[in-house]
Batch of 2 targets.
Target 1
Amino acid sequence: MSTDRIEQTIEIDAPMDRVWSLITEASELPAWWHSIGSASLDLKPGGKMLIRWKEHGITRGVIERIDAPTRFAFRWSTRDDQDPAPGSATLVEFTLEASGEGTRVQVVETGFDELEQSAEERAAAHAENVRGWREVSEWLRERSERQVA
Amino acid sequence: VSAPSTVFAALGDPTRLEILGLVGAGRETTATRLAGLAGVSRPAVVKHLGVLERAGLVDRRKQGRDVHFRVATSAVSDAASWLDARAEAWADRLAALKAHAESDEQRRRAGETDG
């Protein structure tokens, strides 16, 4: 199993254009992404993204792709108040798709294996080289649960 | 519970992984029995068990002259949840997006009916 990628999908009973605005307009973000205090987005490839978190800190990113109303992708830094750079950023891709009268939203975040900023992530990548660490952990957990039972 | 980095470092050695698996296979086991099963010397097994124990992956229990080892489940599930937590954060955000978009949409539809 990959340690590089996570994926989530949800069905929303609202039109695609509306969902698109909620995701891509800086003024709309804090209304549903509750940890965001304020945000600014320069909506073009290479445009800058800045998120000011309610609690503390700033996350900076760069828009990678914007094709209204279906594809929105940005690379964001894992370091506070720094521009995304190799080793300290992941790629987030939103894909919207009409689903009946509603919208299916998929989020994929990739690039975790490239991260260098913490011991956990380095170690995770290392363990992955030996054997898929989640696979191993699952296997161990299964055994442990059998053991408890 | 140890930091995830300690856990991953402990899991990063194939022999140690094998030993951990063998510990998990039974209810409890001893270093001597593990040495036989893994085909590794007893001192080597004891060393590996030490690393696993410091990472919080195995617990030891003394019974008379014997020391019994078993898998400590909490550390194992912490390691497994490293990426799950990130995925969970997106699931939460999307659920919040859905709730917001749908309540907006209901208001808009109600408005259309009124108008």
Target 2
Amino acid sequence: MNPEQPATLETKEIPPEGAPLIGPGYTFGSVTDKISSIVQTRSTPRGWWVGFGISFLLVMVLHYAIAYLLFEGVGIWGIDIPVAWGMAIVNFVWWIGIGHAGTLISAILLLLHQKWRTSINRFAEAMTLFAVACAGLFPLLHMGRPWFGYWLFPYPNTMDLWPQWRSPLVWDVFAVSTYFTVSLLFWYIGLIPDLATLRDRSPSRVGRIVYGIMAMGWRGSARHWHRYEVAYLLLAGLATPLVVSVHTVVSFDFAVAIVPGWHSMIFPPYFVAGALFAGFAMVLTLAIPIRAIYGLQDFITMRHLDNMAKILLATGLMVTYGYVMEGFMAWYSGNQFDIYVTLNRMIGAYAPWYWVLIACNCLAPQLVWFKSMRQNVWVLFVVAMLVNLGMWAERYVIVVTSLHRDYLISSWGMYYPTVWDWATFVGTIGLFLCLMFLFLRFLPMISIFEMRTLLPEAKVKEENS
Amino acid sequence: MPRPPIYGLLAEFGDANALVVATRQAHEKGYRLMDAYTPFPIEEVSEALGFRKTRLPLIVLLGGILGCATGFGMQYYSAVISYPLNVGGRPFNSWPAFIPITFEMTILGAALSAVLGMLALNGLPMPYHPMFNVPRFALATRDRFFLCIEARDPLFDREQTKSFLRSLMPREVTEVEH
């Protein structure tokens, strides 16, 4: 990028390879001020109130939908035999998939020394937490009697019973709760030095106390930094296999069953690729408006968007390969049920969803092969939104089409989501956005101390030794 | 040993290079009870302080092993000892089915011990520290680099150490109250 002209929403110029990860002319102080001033301002922007207000209303819709569900039972949803999973599980898989990009960015890209992760890892991790929180609601509500949810955990009980360890649904409980815990730890540990910065800069007494408690007395000691870096690296190394395991376990929920269209070896890798695909689409969906609204084009540069678009394309191709292989294996197996399920997806009652998923997940990302398209934030935003839709459609197709046509014609049926299915889903989108707005207002959305290390002054020159 | 009248002497530097050089010189001079404070991690500084090894990786390994053993042990105990259930003559100890939970518990144990171990070794949370008595120390989380030689150091002498620190060309030298 041309140093005189920082990227703006309209920028069409092509950055050279190795373009700087941070705009020119920044110092340690100005990086700190730029990011922390978003949080430490007395006046909350009007746009924030509008966005927060709308998402808060949607949270109220969620509350209403949940209250009615608890009162009446899962019969208010469209689920029935044979399609007993319905939108609750579609939404669960969709949200948990979105929750994968945060850990990918913070852990895997850290281990691979991809320094461009620095300005996007914080809000991607926040996104992960909020998405996993939304995901966790669905299996809980789908149980019918959520107040017995703790039965899923092993605890000494008067019934003398244990969870069924051989069930993927119990593995899911452990995988998702571990994933949430580790993501939370990773995010909080990353925040500690920045919370100390906010504590030291806070103009108000309340701010100093609240940020001070959260920063736990961090003072930037060299010994502390040393252990901190070791802990952060180890956490990254632990989170990397974890992120792969979580969606693998989610795919076991399907693949271990003998339902045609689910019982497939390709599910674990194809689910993991799909999760990263969906997650990166959501990171782009959030990053593009955030950088424009908060004027962060110098920190989240076109190079960042370019790299994310490339990952989106790569994971999109993996997902496409998964779809092709599903079709091929159905044909190659010669199994009449597998062939029927595959054809039923393409031309059956739910065919429109199938073609939506092909159009959004396989065709739309092909646009970003072209550099001019990767440089156009509008194109990237539209592609990311299409992928969000396409990945939802994919889960809908997997869950619903397989269940509605089982082996026996006597157990065939249709699934029609009700208004309560939609209200719960839209409500969780509201919850996600609501938490995101609160995060943007009260915590630094970009890691300040890691941005400092990107400045040339942060390098210690060896001639001094 | 009586408590020294002050906590230590604090020198403030404007850039990372100056701090690394100063820390090396102080270490060569023989000062050991000192610490450097920086707004971001600088590997060279902790090396200059003579701080290289940390026990943290060992703690994380032990945490992982503990999580792994707990995860597998819990499933083994429940499926083989506490509530054996014969399903089609399959073995009670169906270990391949126990692996996902064992794996998740390993990661959980290791991650928790990485975080809690790091905080414990660092002595955090620590709401009060004498360093916070220096108003300019707030800049340690912004753009300034500090070196503090503590009064408990055997070589410490209020005047001599102060003039030594001044010779390192800091922006400022301050006394740190308890």
